[in-house]
């Protein structure tokens, strides 16, 4: 049991973050806190994607000339690596194919998702600012109460109430 | 069958559908004069509608259009893939966008502050591009990106209703929270599918899943996340809580656009994932269709129709009615038979047309007289006869009166339910149609049978909606009648779509 959890440590963190985020969105009454919860929730998905991109023993997916010459993926100096790559071009290409890279695609996807998350958060915060200007509060229950008063009493009375 | 456009325009049409509005949105946003921005937006939507129409013609008869973005071969690069299932939805979205842009020429005068009008059209074009992108793309992660592009622009547009009614802000916020949760659920599902298949291309995904045969738990979980995520986006009961507020308080042109297109694009994605990416003959998917989608659809039909009856705000009546209509479509999907799918698909198109017309007319009532409550509908037939006539035609179509588009789709749905032996569903369709008679009848009765209202003892002056508004709603109202009398075209498209869904691969 414990070893299962430890061997899937990233996934445990993903699930914890996901549940925490969703709980905050649903349980909190403050509009800003809800957005924080939403961000945590979205971040957990970033971690999920990054985790699935990791290949065991894989190196960062960057094609470097120095890798070509050594093949084992553990670097090498600049000077000699460069020289070797030029002289043994064809040989190096074969070696490159043998290097185990991590999957770069999830990272690229998550870059996009981060941008989307930032945009959502920005629009959400902008809306909260406007809500604060118009309603004078960012507590959801209070806003619901004001809306309800608006529905029941008609426009004029609700506006009077606001003025008081 | 081939389209009418020639040369590169025809080849590049799938990508132009998305790129053109995106680029024009940026240009619109910096336009100093709002009328220039409007003109650009109108031309853009018009071109997109022409392109979409060409694509519909090209994809007739099981033709598939594939466009590899940047020349990257399909399973690796992003592919735009259009077949009989998504081409009609793209046409619906762009046609409604043309009408709503035309309508916005007048409606923004009353709703949006002058300096915000150019950004308003820009946001509208972004939302439009996002919806089209969701529909035409064949890449699962690209779907998520476009889903969010359209959603974020939509939150902004809904929030712009604040100059008319401050509750727009609160509604936009709620929509943002629930919409983001929905999109995130969807992307979690896509992640699991990617884990399982190692591809993001939907056609490739379908092949890989088919080869695996017995479905693993990972793809079952992926399926669950995708259905819930899309369920939030398409306002499946009980995930519809964002919808009434968003429809009621956003600017009128946006309400009509959202009601006619946004939930439809999400519904298309549900079709796409359930029937073409996954194999609907698998046991757990069959069970989901019957026990989740169909049952929730029927419950939604009842609950939302009942809620619609007790609303005092006409916009909320129509919004709850939309939730109920989504129930009809889900019921069609839930049957999983060719007939049921075709019925659900026809209803998707017809309801887009009908609800578009209803919300446009409702917006015109507000534009002229500030009317939003059902109790204020008294005598509207006498002071705005043309607008009210369009509203009436669409209302009758929504109820499902013979000779209108609504009748065709409801009758097909009844037929499909009966052939499936689902008599409870037949009963549910009939009973909820009667509920629709009650909630729409209330408005029609007040508008036509009660005397025109009086102000200071004098009857209110007759003031018709301006021409650009009337044109849009009448085009849709006439379409609702034409598709009711000569239903061959939408039914043919829907049958083609059902064939794509049940034919297995994309």
Can you walk through the features of this model?
- The complex is a heterodimer of chains A (164) and B (506).
- Helix content of chain A is 78%, strand content 0%.
- Chain A has 164 residues and is mainly α.
- The termini of chain A are far apart.
- With 506 residues, chain B is mainly alpha-helical.
- Chain B is built from 19 helices and four strands.
- Chain B has helices spanning 7-29, 34-58, 87-111, 117-136, 140-159, 167-197, 202-212, 217-233, 243-249, 252-277, 283-309, 314-335, 338-369, 380-383, 385-399, 405-420, 423-449, 467-485, 488-502; strands at 65-68, 79-82, 454-455, 458-459.
- In chain B, the strands form two sheets. Chain B has a two-stranded antiparallel ribbon.
- In chain B, strand 3 (454-455) and strand 4 form a beta hairpin.
- Chain B is globular, with a radius of gyration of 22 Å.
- The two termini of chain B are 19 Å apart.
- The model of chain B has no long low-confidence stretch (mean pLDDT 88).
- Chains A and B meet through helix 3, helix 7 and helix 8 of A and helix 5 and helix 6 of B.
